[in-house]
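Hi P.,

Sorry for the delay on this. The queue was packed all week, but I finally got your sequence through. Input first:
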Amino acid sequence: MDEETVTKLKITKCIENLPSNHLLKQIEGRDQFILFLLYRHRGKQVSEVLKSLFLETDNPLKPLLKAKLIARKDYNCIWHEAKMYERLWDLVKLSAHHLQAGFEEYAGGYPFKSDFHLFAAIAFEMVNTDFSMWLEKYCEFPRDKVVKCYRLKVKQCREQLSLEEQKFLDESASQKGYPWLDLLLLVSHAHVTKRRTPLKTALEDFEKAMADFLEVQATYCRSKKSLVVKDGRIGVGRKNGGTYDFS
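Then the structure:
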C-alpha cells in the first residue's frame, strides 16, 4: 500500500472518531450524551463515504438510500460532508507548505509534523467546535437564524460579505470560526494567480464543495424546529424559538 493511500485511511479514521473523546468530560446530561453518540454515528458514515471516494469504490450508503433505510436529506448531508473533506485534503497537499513557510519565517516554527496533522487539526476544530456549542450552560439555536447563518456562509464561499452580513455571522452563537481553516484559505488565496494552476483548481474545488455542504445543511435545518441547550438538557421550540419543551 503506497504512502498516499495509508494517509487517506488515517484521515478516514480521524473523521470516524470525531467529536473527540475529551469532550465527554464536559457532558452534563443524557441529552448531550445521546447527541455525542449521534455525532459519532454521523462521523462513521461520513468516513465510510470518504473512504469510498479516496479508494474509488462504490458508495456504501447508496444501497441504504435505495432501500429507504436512510432519508434523502441525511444522505445528502453525509455525501457533501465527505466530498468537502476530500477536497480539503487536495487543498492541504498543495497549500500546506506555504503555511509552513509563513510560520517558520514569522512565528519561529511550524506546529504540524505533516500535511495529515494539519488536516486533522482542521477536522478536529470543525467538528469539535460545532459539538461544543451543545455543551454550553445555555444556548439557543433559533431555526431561522441558524438557516440564515448557513446561507451567509454559502455566500461567503463565493463572494465578499457586506459589513452587516459579516457582523451578523460574527455575533451568532451558532456559527463559530475555524482558525486553522481560515489560515489555510488565507494563504491559499495569497498564492493564487490569474493563471490556471493546480492550487487555484484545488482552492476553487474546495470552496465549491464547502458551499454545497453548507447549502444542504441549511436545507436540512429548515425542516427542523428551533432548539436550546440548558444545563445539559436539549429543548425543542414550539415555534421559532422563545418557548421550548424538554423531555
